[in-house]
Each structure stands twice: as C-alpha cells, then as structure tokens.
Amino acid sequence: MNSFTRSHSNIATKTKQHVNLQTVLKDGKRVKACAACIRTETKHLKAKV
Question: Which residue in 3, 19, 22, 27 has a CA-CA distance of 20 to 30 Å to 11?
C-alpha cells in the first residue's frame, strides 16, 4: 500500500506501509501472521468457549 507524505511546500514523497507480521505458534508450528489476523483468531476462540 502506498501513500504520500507532504512537506510544508506540498511536495509529495512516496511512503510504503508494511504489514505488521509477527511469529505465532499455531498447532505446534511457527507461522507468520499479521496483527489483525491474530486479533481476529483470538476473538473467534473466545466466542467458542
């Protein structure tokens, strides 16, 4: 995802936003997942209990 930062002279500089990847244990395996996915997964687990 690209966006622009603007200085006081209104010059547009491209910036990149990266996904917040974190390493998580899932079923005994290490998996990289984004923070939003981890939050959603824990929400579903709490709803089942």
Answer: 19
Tokens 């603007």 identify what position?
Answer: 6
Q: Which amino acid makes up residue 25? A: L
Spell out the SS3 assignment of the chain.
CEEEEECCCCCEEEEECCCCEEEEEECCEEEEEEHHHHHHHHHHHHHHC
**CA separation for the pair 39, 27 (Å, rounded):** 17
DSSP state of 17: -
Tokens of 10: 């209104």
Confidence of residue 6 (pLDDT cuts 50, 70, 90): very high
Domain boundaries, the chain: 2-48
pTM strictly above 0.70? no
